[in-house]
Structures are given as structure tokens and as C-alpha cells.
Amino acid sequence: MSESLRDQLLKSGLARKFKNESQAKPARPQRTGPDRVKREYPRHENAPVERERSEIDLAKAYALRDSTERAERERAQREAEQRAREKRERKQRLQTLLDGKAQNAKDADIPRHFPHTNKIRRIYVTEEQLPRLNGGELGVVQLAGRYLLVAGDIAKAAREIDTDAVVLLCDPQQQTGEDDVPGDLIW
């Protein structure tokens, strides 16, 4: 007859016998004849089957990995919530700072172009506001997707709250860019 896979693995040394298997099992009594009524079975202990040390270690390793991954996910979620909360607070403080201080004129017809997020944007100003904007007396702040023209000190205060909110605040002491194009050039 062919040997079972288990026997083959035991012979090759790839598997080990459990401690319970290595002990000889008591023979069962024969149940023949008139005394069949009385049955005697060997007593089995209710002890759990002993596992190999490697199986226990592997289960502990998986449990440890799961708990560390869960802790990492929870930490990342807490950090994301903290960043979102801080962003909301900055936006609220910026809204309070800029409330009623925008100097955008409805009759403004001169476009002032400026770079923002890798695109050329524009804000319309009046003839009186253009030299003040280029001189640094006025600045442009973005709030809720709109560009607001505000006083220079308000723009500096907005920069302290959120550096990304101020999109244009000219420095008259700084030289013009490499191309020597003046900021008040209308195009």
C-alpha cells in the first residue's frame, strides 16, 4: 500500500510528530459477546491540542502587525483631522480679518495681471489704485476663490495667518524681474 502524505513528510523530516501522537494510545476493548452493555473507553483529557511554537509565533506576528497598522491608520487620520481643523481656523481668522476691508471697485476697468498657481490671473483696478498696487500700498489676497484688493498692512497681516492667501504684494525696493518689464505695464 502507498504511504500517506503525512507519513512521507515525517520520514523526510519536513514534519514533526505532536507530543500527543508520540505517546502510545491504549487499545480499545473488544465489544463482542453478552457483556457489550458495559463499555469502557479510555479517558480523554480536555486539554487543547498543542500547537507548534512557530504557529503561535506566526499568529502573534500577524496580530502585532495588524495592531501596528491599525494604530498607524488612526494616527494618520488624527493628523489629517488636525490639519483640516487648523485650515478651517486659518480660513475663519482670514475671513474675520478681511471682512469689510476689500477695496475692489465695481467701476474698475484696468486689468492688473499677476502669476498665481502657474497661471496668469488678473484683477481689475481703477486708475488711482494701479500705482498704489504696484508701489506696495495695496495687495491682492485670495479668499474663497475670489481675489480681494486690500491695504498693504492688511495683506501683511493676512500673510501671517496664511502665507498662501497673499497672491500679490509688490515690494517697491525690489528690482523688477529678469525681463525688466515694469509692473504697471498694461497688456
How would you summarize what this structure contains?
The protein is of the alpha+beta class and 187 residues long.
What can you see in these coordinates?
Helices cover 40% and strands 16% of the residues. The strands form two sheets. Strands 4-3-5 form a three-stranded antiparallel β-sheet. Strands 1-2 form a two-stranded antiparallel sheet. The chain has helices at 5-12, 19-22, 53-98, 129-134, 152-161; strands at 110-116, 119-125, 138-143, 146-151, 166-168. It is built from five helices and five strands. It is an alpha+beta fold and 187 residues long.
Give descriptors for this structure.
three-stranded antiparallel β-sheet, two-stranded antiparallel ribbon, 5 helices, rod-shaped
Radius of gyration: 40 Å
In terms of quaternary structure, the protein is single chain
* Sheet of most strands: 3 strands, antiparallel
- Using the alpha-carbon principal axes, give the shape: rod-shaped
